[in-house]
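Internal QA ticket QA-208
Title: Verify multi-chain structure generation after dependency bump
Assignee: T.L.

Test input:
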Amino acid sequence: MAARRHLHVVDDEHMTDEDLLVRTARGDTAAFEELYDRYSARVYGLVKRIVRDPTLSQDATQVVMTELWKTAARFDPDRGAAASWILTLAHRRAIDVVRREQSSRDRIQRAGRTQMERPADTIAEGVVMEDEHAEVRAAMHHLTELQREAIQMAWFDGYTYREVAAALDVPLGTIKTRMRDGMIRLRDELGVAT
Amino acid sequence: MTSADIHSLAGAYALDALPADEVDDFEAHLAQCRACRQEVASFEATTVRLSELVEESPPASMKTDVMAMITSVRQDPPLAVSDHGDADGSDADDTVSDPTAEAASDPTADTTADTVTPTTTAAPAGAATVTGSAPQTRDATSRGMTLANRLGLGLAAALMVVAGALGLWATSLNGQLQERDDQAQQVAAVLAADGAQTIQVDGTTLVIAPDQQAVLATAGLTAPGDDEVMQVWVIDERGPVSAGLFVDPSSPKLLDVPVTDGATVGITIEPAGGSEQPTSDPIWAAEV
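Actual output:
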């Protein structure tokens, strides 16, 4: 029995994210713990990047992780990757917090300030310096400045495309198009499988 | 808006950057545009890579808290395709406008939050009376509420904090919010499913995923009067089964029951609240 239990632990470490989520749905706390270890930094980092306040970000991250446990049964591995599922949940929860926090007008003003205070390519320059992220940073650098700003402000600041357009003083249609062609370029450069 | 224009929203949609009032239109478009569905899925996989750039480990204590928290959180049951099949009239009513309620959809979310104010304000009192809960759990709760109050967060956000800290997923309020999210995710999943079948009749589109979950998006169909409602039916050899009310035709409707091969999906006009069985001829129907 001891050997079997040991094997089980090894299995958790080598299991795909999708397997872990499916096991979590069956109440497997060891599988959930492994998922936590794999994703808590990405979830917390993303939530905190958007929400900013550390305490509020921690609370929101706990909500996301608990919700992951609760709703794991709704994940269908045939429909997409676990990573997309988990980070979409995290992003939407973070946005729930910030979009209720301030009126749209406030946020547009803040977007403008943020843009002026912060070099446009902070993210691309690398908040995290590990080499493993070099590929993503390089791909961000290959975007045009407007593509990069639009994508950063949407994904990392949680702004709507209308707010991004207002902050950058660029027509709405241009921002929509830049978000899309920027994402196409990023996707292709990173070789993301579809 | 021309179709070329709406197609360009795929990037903003995948980045969660569409305002709430544009999400519905785009999801209706998604129902009819396989290219957009594939593009959105590929963009979502790309945002996963982007998120690597901001990785930051949470405090180590959070893991202990979360692992303790989940022991008091009941997990959702497996999502069988017949999950909504046992929905009676009143359940169907709840689900009507939900499929379109995207997670970040402010107006609809705020409406819900407003209707549940008493529950929310009662939460801290309830928390204080919880016996035998770990001290850090209570601390986390009061901290969450205080923080939420200080920041003037909306009710839903405050509730989220409280519910997260306490694991109070069973509260009806949070259940509602949760269900809306789940519905939106299910609609998106159906629309993005590989091998989904799309049937279009008279500008109304039915999308059926391989697991038989289905989404209906209409252009032009509405219920004629205030005391009438559109009701969706799935008709197979056993006869018609209600697939729920279609109250807000401007948004895609996730059918409450699976659509099997060879079934017919139809829409009838029924008295407000819906009927057990169809009481009129269908205004729209499609054979699968």
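Spot checks passed. Strands of chain B lie at 197-201, 204-208, 214-217, 228-236, 239-246, 253-254, 264-271, 284-287.
Status: verified.
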